[in-house]
Amino acid sequence: MNFEKSKQLFERACKTIPGGVNSPVRACRNVHCDPVFIASAKGSHIFGADGTEFIDFIGSWGPMLLGHAHEEVEEAVIEALKKGTSYGAPTESEVLLAEKVCEALPSCDMVRMVNSGTEATMSALRLARAVTGKNKLVKIIGGYHGHGDAFLASAGSGLATFSIPGTPGVPQSTVQDTLLVPYNDLEAAKEIFAKHGDDIAAFFVEPCAGNMGLVLPVAGYLQGLRELCTKYGALLVFDEVITGFRVSYQGAQGRFGVMPDLTTMGKIIGGGLPVGAYGGKAEYMQRIAPAGDVYQAGTLSGNPLAMAAGLATLNILEKADYAGLEQRVLSFVKELVSVLESKGLPVQYQHIASMFTLFFTDKPVHNFADVEKASTSIFESYYKQMREMGIFLSPSAFETAMVSFAHTDDDFNKTLDAAKKLKF
Ligand SMILES: *Cc1c(COP(=O)(O)O)cnc(C)c1O
Fold first, then answer.
1. What value does the mean pLDDT take over residues 208-234?
2. What are the structural domains, with CATH classification, of the chain?
3. Is 0.90 topped by the overall pTM?
4. For residue 405, how far is its CA from the centre of ligand 1 (angstroms)?
């Protein structure tokens, strides 16, 4: 494929935008190549600025569960657009979307709209601290909750309980209240509560880890966290920014039957426009200003275009055949794995609903330490060859492939045909 136009745009972009991109992973540095600039997208296909065409498995990193430029979503946004784009005063569409979300997610009585997943988790943390009167938060090693300072902590020198800033610019004082534990390790969670239980405001977890590649919860893990949080008076926060409306219309909480105290949302809920949200039991959410004393605000929060896109998306998803898509994706993934195995590659896969990750390792993956053992060099070669053959994958070994309702069997077959031509 010829990427000349993308190359030119990227060179220009690097002069006025740090690293040429507005979010780091887009730059494709993990796979040592330049990004493809996108001109448009429709359904399961995405079109590059170079006149190229790809089958898209990024799905804008999660939002596009219906596929790109879905007609009903498009119409709803155009309709809203004609009425003005922002008022700074409440609208009916905010009420409708809030009702829709609370109806779908069993643990949410009330919800507050924000503009991104990052804002949702930052605000949920503030609320959890206010509600409990405690300061510490526990997060998962390799879990991602947006780029809020408190979440950008790394495990220091192998010691899970000692956090260091995950990036320059985050003070030690900000992450000293962030405790880290490995995913799927209930013993580690018990230990951290035994040691710090009096100070822990919240346990943040992606119910299905999606930002270390996809890693599913082992049986009893989420339930165990629920019991621990209840025992120690900490709030259990499910970060459902990816899993909300994807692993089921009722989110991971509905699917696994474990109820968090607070839920953070994003991605799908905005139907491709910038939206985040956090919700939970009324007794907690009533603490948010102006109902209560915990300040949180936003000039563009509940934006009418974003609400229209979100509402149209949920209206369709409410009736969508999640089970059917899950089955189709599972058989596709199994075939893809067997094609790769037939080339002598070690492959583990994780799959749920319309998301999956292939890990190039022969050991099962249950947490970040397992994931890190997977080969990034095999992934890089896989990524580059697939892209050359018109298959658009996340440019990192530790991301989740997002399939949409728009993906056809023809898309899956073409992807498998491409995989058959891979050389390692
Ligand atoms: C994407 C993501 C976020 C951050 O959302 P943004 O809209 O990118 O700020 C938070 N949590 C999880 C689990 C995510 O996948």
1. 98
2. 4-66+322-420 (3.90.1150.10), 71-317 (3.40.640.10)
3. yes
4. 21
